[in-house]
């Protein structure tokens, strides 16, 4: 229930703070006094969009703050799911800045409008004559029947299973499409894979093959260069090795004369050792040089195969070819397991469809049992509201499709008068009839489910006398288990309230302001008397007001 409302700088309200109690609260006031402003402020708290026209003073921000007692609403899971601090006394604050930017907070944690709207559904339900048309919505009609049928838990189970069923169907369709496309390419991909597997490629192989090919393809040049080098190195009179030895012997004779000569000897000795090693290695290379046309041809063929595969697959390295091969292998494996996946999904879909059918049948059976209960209760309440000849014909038929709340199709037929045919509620019920039907529905739902705070906004338009008294009594009865507000022009309803608030508009200089205040007993008598007789209050109106209040 809402326990307090604070409004600052909104529409005609400069500043307002008001406390509310449980039970049945009445809000009255002249047309244009500002009752719609109060509803507008509550709408902002519940997540409606705002603009700068909401600001009374365009230079200051607008702040609307509402406090709710949510201890009986079982909302801890909602707060946890939205990462909000749960407080039994929860405060929702909405701010509209002069820049036009809007901010919202729940217990001082910032939230977006969608989160605010989702939370608002649990807190306040505002009904006006225009909003009674919601009753013509099939989903709303199902909600009414399901509340009486106690179907909420089973529908929740059904919806979880339906989500899984639809997920499986989606996966199956995707697999079948993929299988159809893959089958077209399967033969080609298998050919490509076999071609790569036959090549027996290895990482780093291309560089090795290219090196071997260069050696085998240039054997004569290599042999000539090495032999010439060996000849120069080892020629008996003028070879490099002999000359190095001569130099070494000459320097060794003077090495003891000075350190720099000794260093020269050391360096020449090292050079001689290194050159001897180079000569030995050139000899070994010369011995290994063999002209092998067969190996050259094999190497060349393998290289050409690599180059051709790279060109076909538009890559530059063997490593990329190996990755393509791995991808093709995975595709082939996937194609092999796809049939098994499709079979498993088909089996799962059939099983879940059977379970959904069982749940849908239970939901249907419960609804069939609830329909006469709803009809009887509706007829009884509407008879007291001046509709004694009301009849309902609620038709439920099971279809083939899995809908969000079962497999039922619904026709909510209505007749207000004797001798008239049944027609769809949305086509044959008038605005006044819809208002009374809405009140009857809410009165019935209050017996079966935990409803949020209900605000009836002038749904009594076009009603008077004894019917108005009955409407007030119904609201009064509902308020025993929930918080009810009624915005009304009827004294018969206003007299039934536990608390009575008046909205009034005043002009101070060039400024117009609206205010909402709680009336005491005497003020309440006067207010109801004015509702009976107008601005000039007669003694009979005062007595009538007292009688209504008593």
Automatic annotation (TrEMBL):
Mind listing the UniProt keywords for this protein, alphabetically? ATP-binding, DNA damage, DNA repair, Nucleotide-binding
Q: Which Pfam families does UniProt cross-reference here? A: SMC_N
Superkingdom field = Bacteria
User: Entry's NCBIfam families?
Assistant: recN (TIGR00634)
Q: Which family does it belong to?
A: Belongs to the RecN family.
Q: Which organism is it from?
A: Flavobacterium flavipallidum
State what this protein does: May be involved in recombinational repair of damaged DNA.
Name of protein: DNA repair protein RecN
Residue span, RecF/RecN/SMC N-terminal domain: 2-506
InterPro entries per UniProt = DNA_recomb/repair_RecN, P-loop_NTPase, RecF/RecN/SMC_N
Fetch the CDD domains from UniProt: ABC_RecN
Signal peptide annotation: none
